[in-house]
Design goal:
This protein is an alpha+beta fold. The chain has a domain of 79 residues: OB fold (Dihydrolipoamide Acetyltransferase, E2P). It is built from two helices and five strands; from the N terminus they run ααβββββ. A five-stranded mixed beta barrel has the order 1-2-3-5-4. Strand 2 and strand 3 form a beta hairpin.
Length: 119
Amino acid sequence: MTKHILTSLAIIGMATTAAPLAAQAEFVGPGVSESIKTVADAKNAYDDTYVELTGHIVNKVEDETYMFRDDSGDIMIEIDDDDFRGQKVTPETTIMIKGEVDKGWGDLEIDVEWLEIKK
């Protein structure tokens, strides 16, 4: 009985120490695309594609929806109010947004997960 308990504890110990290592691993190489960097490329990307765009919010369209512009064009973005994290952003403020392409029935926008003011 003691042998079974010790064996079980050893298996549990190995599983819990291996999990953090697996979470840190990632594959980098052929077949892995880099993030999209321009509005023009985001407009042609698949749904849920990760983007990192640098540009400006030019105006508020509706609650949590804004028009974003970079040198390649304009695109609608959705930013939850709390994702501004107390930062003041104006049309003159250069920002980087990170998020995913969200394609619906005829709609296209970027669902922003992170906003950073660029200096």
